[in-house]
Amino acid sequence: xxxxxxxxxxxxxxxxxxxxxxxxxxxLETGLMRSMLRPVFGESLLDVGCGTGESIRPxxxxxxxxxxxxxxxxxxGVARENLGHRVDFHKGYAEDLPFEDNAFNHVSLFxxxxxxxxxxxxxxxxxxxxxxxxFIGFLNRHSAYVAxxxxxxxxxxxxxxxxxxxxIGEVRKILYSLLGQVPLFWRTxxxxxxxAPGVCHRLESSGCFGKSPFGGFAGIHxxxxxxxxxxxxxxxxxxxQNVAAGNRVASCSRYHKEKKQSRTENAKNNTAFK
Length: 274
Fold this sequence. Notes:
There is one protein chain. β4 (104-110), α4 (119-129) and β5 form a beta-alpha-beta unit. It is globular, with a radius of gyration of 29 Å. The longest helix is centred in the last third of the chain and has 22 residues, at 252-273. By secondary structure, it is of the alpha/beta class. The N and C termini lie far apart (91 Å). It is built from eight helices and seven strands; from the N terminus they run ααββαββαβααβαβα. Helices cover 38% and strands 16% of the residues. Strands 3-2-1-4-5-7-6 form a seven-stranded mixed beta sheet, with helices on both faces. The protein has helices at residues 7-18, 20-36, 73-83, 119-129, 144-152, 168-179, 197-205, 252-273, and strands spanning 44-48, 65-70, 88-91, 104-110, 130-139, 184-189, 217-222.
């Protein structure tokens, strides 16, 4: 079990969202997610570590079956207030999802990996319950944005004091170890954390920096490829093989050869009779 957000954390996040600059940051992050994770009408989506529900909000009203899971009662309480009964909420941990294999078309972890206890197990569980795709949105360890978050620890405390940051390469490596060499795509935003928010938002919304490995927020979209296990069947007819002289071994080729010879002899006998 990793860090579980309490009621103070939930209220702090709600206050954080009141700032217009922070709303623009969230808009860039969720915009990247929406451009990569595109469930269609009738499909299902599970958001692991759903928090207050802001990462589910972009998919409301699109005919998608939405489910959120989070270990924090406080976060789920705020999410229910924000989204009502349009989302099916559960309490649970990313490392032990209470769902069947392939239960959802898509699974997302949006700013969740930073706070889990076992990131490999969390991603393994996400891949287990996902049928079509898995999206991971996380703060990029190799970015100026995360460097600034780390520097702030010396000034004031925040929820990121309990976070563990990952690089794009690290998350890709975990996914490949779990799924094999499956189709996998990545992009980033928040390249310019020290630029004026309005200018930064316009530049990044254009998508021209999307393939930079140094963006503050990274999104990775993995497409699991179904794997089938072949079950060997017992061979019921012996094959022809080398045996000692005088022994006969039944085989498909010998059977058809003897049957053809028998038909030929019968045909000769019928001709002679006539």
